[in-house]
Amino acid sequence: MKALILVGGYGTRLRPLTLSIPKPLVDFCNKPILLHQVEALAAAGVDHVILAVSYMSELLEKEMKAQEQKVRRGLSFPLLPAQPPTPGWEEPDSVASLFQLGIRISMSHEEEPLGTAGPLALARDLLSETEDPFFVLNSDVICDFPFQAMVQFHRHHGQEGSIVVTKVEEPSKYGVVVCEADTGRIHRFVEKPQVFVSNKINAGMYILSPAVLQRIQLQPTSIEKEVFPVMAKEGQLYAMELQGFWMDIGQPKDFLTGMCLFLQSLRQKQPERLCSGPGIVGNVLVDPSARIGQNCSIGPNVSLGPGVVVEDGVCIRRCTVLRDAHIRSHSWLESCIVGWRCRVGQWVRMENVTVLGEDVIVNDELYLNGASVLPHKSIGESVPEPRIIM
């Protein structure tokens, strides 16, 4: 089977992290977002993944090639940002293989943004090589990926398309899916309903038969607004309800919420992956190469990446700390994302979805409240109100 992952967006909602690398390569719970999806696809029998790329496509392609080289040398998937491939390494343009997963990766380059349906037309030749259905994913989604169940559901109803839906508490904030409770057949989509009609929303995961490709032209097109409503009217689109957690992690506050949900899922399914011991509170994921000092309080809901150093007396709650960051003694962090190779000084307090881009230095004894700091900046004064530091 094949899968198309929509990775061509600019990632503006997740800045400043995406000013350094493409959003699919940002580490989520110590693994690139893209790899979470690819691993789940591989487990469901997918052997060819097509990445619909546009913004920063060269960097994404270099990373795929670097991955192939590392796998050849017996190393694991690199945590990013990564260095370019070694000079002299050659491979056909736009193709890399994730040998560890037995998956081929192809790049489908958009010269102009094509929306969420146009990329399917651009990759038509690859997607229609066989009569098998194929997956389509938004790159922002993290969940208990139900790919095997999707295949069974799609084959059972036998029509052109299946989408995954998830329930939300405030449907008036979303476009909702109105479908039959027993069969899942979709009748219509309603944008931000003021009167309750459904509490199910599109979860950004589809399985489609190749016949759908005949509905899509090679031009900027929205699959949600232009293709799916027509399919629904013709009785060709069905909804499968997701069981388990789901989050669109495309912006920092949701990234942190998604981390909490993911860690809770690990607690239920793979508790051995979580850290325990003195100073560890609740669900905490720590890379084996990270170092934690004495008299710290780490957690609940914390992810510490490779090479992270946490000095004595530090308190970290509901935070992601990315590769090679260094948190000096007696600092206090809550609801923050600390970027790659950042340095947070002593007695610093950061909270309220403060996000540090790559290689940021925060001097001693400062307070950051909801700050969004661009890469390679040095912060020498407190930020008492939420703002962007350029």
UniProtKB/TrEMBL annotation:
Residues 280-389 form the Mannose-1-phosphate guanyltransferase C-terminal domain. One of its GO terms (molecular function) is GTP binding. It comes from the Eukaryota. Pathway: Nucleotide-sugar biosynthesis; GDP-alpha-D-mannose biosynthesis; GDP-alpha-D-mannose from alpha-D-mannose 1-phosphate (GTP route): step 1/1. It catalyses: alpha-D-mannose 1-phosphate + GTP + H(+) = GDP-alpha-D-mannose + diphosphate. It is an enzyme of class 2 (transferase). Residues 2-260 form the Nucleotidyl transferase domain. Its EC number is 2.7.7.13. Gene3D superfamilies: Hexapeptide repeat proteins, Spore Coat Polysaccharide Biosynthesis Protein SpsA, Chain A. InterPro entries: GMPPB_C (IPR056729), GMPPB_N (IPR045233), Hexapep_transf_CS (IPR018357), Mannose-1P_guanyltransferase (IPR050486), NTP_transferase_dom (IPR005835), Nucleotide-diphossugar_trans (IPR029044). Pfam families: GMPPB_C (PF25087), NTP_transferase (PF00483). GO terms for biological process: GDP-mannose biosynthetic process. Keywords: GTP-binding, Nucleotide-binding, Nucleotidyltransferase, Transferase. Component of the GMPPA-GMPPB mannose-1-phosphate guanylyltransferase complex composed of 4 GMPPA subunits and 8 GMPPB subunits; the complex is organized into three layers, a central layer made up of 2 GMPPA dimers sandwiched between two layers each made up of 2 GMPPB dimers. GMPPB catalytic activity is reduced when part of the complex and binding of GDP-alpha-D-Mannose by GMPPA induces allosteric feedback inhibition of GMPPB. Belongs to the transferase hexapeptide repeat family. Catalytic subunit of the GMPPA-GMPPB mannose-1-phosphate guanylyltransferase complex. Catalyzes the formation of GDP-mannose, an essential precursor of glycan moieties of glycoproteins and glycolipids. Can catalyze the reverse reaction in vitro. Together with GMPPA regulates GDP-alpha-D-mannose levels. This is Mannose-1-phosphate guanylyltransferase catalytic subunit beta. It comes from Trichechus manatus latirostris. The lineage of its organism: Eukaryota, Metazoa, Chordata, Craniata, Vertebrata. The gene is GMPPB.
